[in-house]
Amino acid sequence: QVQLVESGGGLVQAGGSLRLSCAASGRTLSIYAMGWFRQAPGKEREFVAAIRWYGGSTYYADSVKGRVTISRDNVENTVFLQMSSLKPEDTAVYYCAAGVAPGVVVVTGAYRYWGQGTQVTVSS
Predict the structure, then answer these.
(1) Is the pLDDT higher at 80 or at 29?
(2) Which residues, in sequence order, are CB contacts of 8 under 8 Å at separation 6+?
(3) What tens digit of pLDDT does each residue of 9-36 get?
(4) Are 22 and 115 in contact, with CB atoms under 8 Å apart?
(5) How far is CA 16 from the centre of its chain?
(6) Where would you tag: which of 59, 84, 100, 102 has the fewest CB atoms within 10 A of its CB?
(7) How confident is residue 82, by pLDDT bands cut at 50, 70 and 90?
(8) DSSP for 50-82?
(9) Per-residue model confidence (pLDDT) at position 103
(10) d(Cα 37, Cα 108) in Å, to the nearest integer?
(11) What are phi and psi of 58, to 5 degrees?
(12) 70, 79 contact by CB (below 8 A)
């Protein structure tokens, strides 16, 4: 199996920046794509961004496009989410996920493995 550990969350002011990291271990050669999702209090988990592991194609939710960049380091088996111009509505627990087969990367069903999440809080 694949284990995922997120880091980099914290408290930032509106307009600030933050970089999240997700380190993968275990059977990492099986990873096809990795994605970021977030869940705010009282809301369902929503797609943020995704990247194909070996091709590098990226996908973004309309709500974050232009403010977020996803990237990966294949050697270190790590994916990053660089966020800027943060807004209070970006406050949520952010989850990293790994998929092992081709699929629709913007939905949770495309991913088999999930991290525990990291809290991002944006103050106004």
Answers:
(1) 80
(2) 18, 19, 20, 21, 118
(3) 999 999 999 999 999 999 999 999 999 9
(4) yes
(5) 18
(6) 102
(7) very high
(8) EEETTT--EEE-TTTBTTEEEEEETTTTEEEEE
(9) 83
(10) 8
(11) -120, 155
(12) yes
Which amino acid, residue 15? G
pLDDT of residue 3: 97
- Beta-carbon contacts of 60 under 8 Å, excluding residues fewer than 6 positions away, are 48, 49, 68, 70
Q: How far apart are CA 66 and CA 33, in angstroms?
A: 21
Q: What gap in Å lies between CA 114 and CA 94, rounded to an integer?
A: 11
Which residues have C-beta within 8 Å of that of residue 33, sequence separation ≥ 6? 50, 51, 52, 53, 98, 99, 103, 105, 110, 111
CA 102 to the chain's CA centroid = 18
pLDDT of 59 above 90? yes
Per DSSP, 33 falls in state E
Tokens of 85: 């111009």
Residue 8 C-alpha from the chain's centroid:
11
Please report the sign of the dihedral spanned by the C-alpha atoms of residue 103, residue 72, residue 76, residue 122. Answer: negative
